[in-house]
Design goal:
The complex is a heterodimer. By secondary structure, chain A is α/β, with parallel strands linked by helices. Chain A contains 11 helices and 12 strands. Helix content of chain A is about 30%, strand content about 20%. Chain B is built from 14 helices and 2 strands, in the order H-H-H-H-E-E-H-H-H-H-H-H-H-H-H-H. In chain B, helix 1 runs antiparallel to helix 14. The chains are: A alpha/beta, B mainly alpha. Chains A and B meet through helix 2, helix 3 and helix 6 of A and helix 10 and helix 11 of B.
């Protein structure tokens, strides 16, 4: 990571959805930073709030029913949560762009792909000539690995395979050379062989375009390959943050430990976390994970989620990490706070 | 695509030929009211009914073999020699040429207004769903669909025609001839028919376009477009409406025919507009076979031609349609 000021700083972000079943607290006080040039992975199960977090940054979520209730999103020194839709439109696709999960439906079927990529340029560059748009679109397709880009530019989306469509969507996201790319499960809907290609492409392009990446995924194996830092989410809360090596070598939060133990080739085979994700309309008191946590104490079931505590290398108890803090390894678990013995977890960890 | 369109055009001729042949078959199989009338009038003045019948058949070439009659019929149809209308005492083609303008003068505005305003309102409803505007539009829409045209027309005549006397209670066909089709007087007497027809067709267009637009708005590509920085206007028009236009294009002929059949016959009867609807009605009541045949065929050809346009619009609007093998 380079630079001292983060490119993107998300602090106590809280996003709710007002539905007929009640208020869904999809994102419930999330903090993390993204520095220039680095890749931050947001990891969690389906329904953990990772996608909503990533789509709250430039408010791509539908408002209403969604609402950003609290928190701040600072991008390159500018507060985004208070901006009007017109101001956000200037940032979307220009400085912060997205790649989504499902490439099959990501392109409008009635327009040629070149026109759809060119749309980004036309939106953000007034008076750009047709020839210039075409030249740059062909160049983008070429850089994202579409063979015969100069003729493919005139094809319709249904003439592309899923992997090729995702390349087109990546080309679209990179059209304006963004500072931040938010990739939401960009490989989940693809074949395994294509997945690896797309991941490699994203890594190459990140270096080429010198951009930061937020990589949203449920796939820990992917995280370990491409991310610098990782944010583990559960039921709308951050459970643990840290450098990838730290989190994978020494997972601190019991939830992260269980997740990593579930990876093939790690821990015992075919492990699963007992229980299921809590209802988003009615999350449990205290630590969101306590109903499924084997180390939960009575104290875990009341109050709010514990703050993010530093995970000391020697198991020392430390004060809560500063909000929106640095790249230190932190976990939202009482065992890393005062009056708890972290070795209880260590013992348990050995047992697994 | 050229070949596809050419093929479709050829098919419309086949469809027209089938329609013409079917009507010929039906007419040949059914009793001839002219022959019945001729026979009866002979009997009334004491002549030999049998003889009169033969004379009538000979005069109308009914004594010829079926193949000969079919050949003559087709030649007549193609050369626009569609016969003599007893009830109007004129040839059928001039009768239609007289009548169609009276229908078109309200049907075309209804079609254009209901499409533009209906799609506009539907799109806006979809853009702000479940708001007061949306609910109001839905209420007005269901009201328009639910109330019968004839009842609504009568209520409007009573309220606006007799109580307030804002508009004439019936249509005077002399006005467009003497003062011009676009004269104020003519436009004024068209207000009620257009309003009545609009309530139903506009509501229908609005509900349908709202449903189609809502479906497209949840599509992934709309989210992608939003992430590109597209404005709300661009999202709704360039992406949502453009996609919704594909299914919407297929509803066009349906609404056109609805105006013609369910609309015009009733409306023209109520307001005494001498258009195709009223002509159809009188022709049926007076058993004027050539005229019934003509009005039916006009509608059938309208449907065939409309479907041709729809099919062409469909392949132009949606590049995914594979027309290569059809």
């Amino acid at each position: 990571m380079s630079g001292t000021e983060p490119l993107l700083s998300v602090e106590s972000l809280t996003t709710h959805f007002h539905t007929e079943e009640g208020t869904v607290r999809a994102v419930d006080g999330v903090d993390f930073d993204v520095y220039r040039g680095e890749t931050v992975a947001i990891v969690g199960e389906s329904g953990s709030g990772k996608t909503v977090t990533s789509e709250s940054v430039t408010k791509i979520i539908d408002i209403p029913p969604g609402e950003i209730v609290d928190g701040s999103v600072t991008f390159d020194g500018r507060e985004l949560t208070g901006l009007s839709d017109e101001e956000l439109q200037e940032i979307r696709g220009d400085r912060i762009s997205h790649v989504f999960q499902n490439p099959q439906n990501g392109l409008n079927p009635v327009y040629r792909v070149g026109r759809q990529i060119g749309e980004v340029l036309r939106i953000h560059e007034d008076g750009i000539s047709d020839a210039e748009v075409r030249r740059r679109v062909v160049d983008l397709l070429d850089r994202t690995g579409i063979p015969e880009a100069s003729s493919r530019v005139d094809d319709y989306p249904h003439e592309f395979s899923g992997g090729m469509k995702q390349r087109v969507l990546i080309a679209m996201a990179l059209a304006r050379d963004p500072d931040l790319l938010i990739a939401d499960e960009p490989t989940t809907a693809l074949d395994v062989t294509i997945q690896a290609q797309i991941l490699r492409l994203l890594e190459e392009l990140q270096a080429d375009f010198d951009m930061s990446v937020i990589f949203v995924t449920h796939d820990l194996a992917v995280v370990s390959e491409i991310a610098d830092r990782v944010v583990v989410m559960y039921a709308g809360k951050v459970m643990e943050r840290g450098r990838v090596e730290e989190v994978f070598e020494a997972p601190a939060h019991p939830y992260t430990r269980s997740l990593i133990a579930c990876l093939p080739g790690r821990g015992s085979a075919m492990r699963r976390i007992e229980g299921s994700l809590p209802e988003a309309t009615d999350p449990p008191e205290g630590c969101r994970f306590h109903p499924r946590c084997e180390y939960a104490t009575d104290g875990c079931a009341s109050g709010d989620q514990p703050p993010l505590y530093h995970v000391g290398g020697d198991g020392n108890r430390q004060s809560p990490a500063p909000v929106g803090g640095d790249a230190d390894h932190t976990a939202a678990c009482v065992y890393y706070g005062p009056a708890h013995d972290v070795s209880t977890l260590e013992d348990g960890g050995d047992r697994q | 695509m050229k070949w596809y369109i050419l093929k479709r055009v050829l098919w419309t001729f086949v469809a027209m030929w089938i329609a013409l042949t079917l009507t010929f078959g039906l007419i040949s199989a059914s009793p001839n009211p002219g022959q019945m009338r001729a026979t009866m009038s002979c009997a009334a003045v004491g002549e030999n009914p049998q003889e009169c019948r033969e004379q009538f058949r000979e005069r109308n070439n009914l004594d010829q073999p079926v193949t000969e009659r079919y050949k003559n019929y087709m030649v007549n149809m193609v050369t626009l020699n569609w016969g003599w209308s007893e009830s109007r005492s004129q040839y059928v083609i001039p009768a239609i040429l007289d009548a169609w303008r009276f229908t078109a003068q309200y049907a075309i505005p209804v079609l254009v207004i209901s499409t533009l305003v209906g799609y506009g309102l539907g799109l806006y409803s979809a853009y702000k769903p479940y708001t007061v505007t949306d609910y109001t539009a839905s209420f007005v829409g269901f009201f328009g669909i639910s109330i019968p045209n004839f009842w609504f027309a009568l209520v409007l005549i009573i309220l606006l025609g007799t109580r307030v006397e804002l508009v004439p209670t019936y249509y005077q066909s002399g006005i467009p001839i003497q003062q011009g089709w676009l004269s104020l007087a003519n436009l004024r007497q068209l207000i009620l028919p257009v309003t009545v027809l609009l309530t139903a067709s506009l509501a229908w267009q609005m509900r349908y376009s709202r449903a189609q637009a809502l479906e497209q708005m949840n599509a992934e590509f709309v989210k992608v477009a939003k992430a590109k920085g597209a404005s709300q206007y661009r999202l709704m028009i360039w992406h949502v409406l453009r996609m919704a236009a594909v299914p919407l294009s297929t509803s066009f002929v349906g609404s056109l025919l609805a105006i013609f059949w369910s609309g015009s016959v009733i409306i023209e009867q109520i307001f005494a507009i001498p258009g195709l609807g009223l002509m159809t009605y009188t022709a049926i009541v007076e058993q004027d076979t050539p005229l019934v045949l003509a009005t039916t065929l006009v509608t059938v050809f309208l449907a065939i031609f409309g479907n041709l346009l729809e099919d062409i619009a469909y392949v132009i609007l949606d590049p995914r349609i594979d027309y290569g093998n059809r």
